[in-house]
Every structure is written in C-alpha cells, then in structure tokens.
Design goal:
By secondary structure, this protein is an alpha+beta fold. It contains three helices and five strands. The strands form two sheets. A three-stranded antiparallel β-sheet has the order 3-4-5, covered by helices on one side. A two-stranded antiparallel sheet has the order 1-2. Helix 2 runs antiparallel to helix 3. The two termini are 27 Å apart.
Length: 113
C-alpha cells in the first residue's frame, strides 16, 4: 500500500495515485491480509481494504464521492481528483473511471452521515 505518496499531475489537474491505482492497491492489501491473524499489519490492511472497496464500488456505480478527506493535500474524489478544501462538485477535472479521461459528465453521490 502506498503510505508515502505525492499527488501526480495529469492533463492540468492533480490526482491521488492511491485512488487511480485502487485495483492494484486492493490486490496488495489482500496479499498483506494473508499474514498472521490478529497482527497489527493484518488489521491495518483490513482497515485500508474497506476504503478501496468503497472506491471500486463507486467506480462500478459510476458515481463520484469523497474517497479521502483531511489528507495532507485535502479532499480526494473516488476518481482520484484532489480538490483540496473545495467541494467535489465545484472542481473540474474529474476522471471517467472507465477510460481515465477527464470528463464533464459526472454523477455525484450524496454525502452520507
């Protein structure tokens, strides 16, 4: 899992590489969970796995939602776009999660909780 990372620039926007690489991150976390039961590494991997399951579920449903918040770089969309402190709907540069091309055709999920 990518703990230390820097966002990447793509087509004049900033993206969180952890989200863009979500399928690979899921594979690595599942592999980490094969360690000893109850170990801190296994429990940490399970916790992060829930985040990535949420992201991939959003991809499958074709919606954009907040994947991570209060990270060093601010709010991050489930497509990987880093929006800083701004709401997701107020920022351009969202990616179509099937093609990973920038799109204006975005469906936002309503916040929960």
């Amino acid at each position: 899992m990518l703990i230390n990372y820097e966002p990447v620039r793509y087509k004049d926007h900033t993206y969180d590489v952890r989200v863009v690489n979500a399928p690979l991150e899921m594979l690595m976390l599942r592999r980490a969970m094969t360690g000893p039961r109850g170990s801190s590494d296994t429990m940490l991997a399970a916790m992060f796995l829930l985040d990535y399951e949420f992201i991939l579920d959003a991809w499958a449903r074709g919606v954009h939602a907040v994947a991570f918040e209060d990270e060093p770089h601010g709010r991050v969309c489930t497509c990987g776009l880093v929006t800083g402190a701004r709401p997701l709907h107020a920022v351009g540069g969202h990616l179509d999660t099937m093609t990973f091309e920038v799109t204006d055709d975005v469906v936002f999920a309503l916040p929960t909780g």
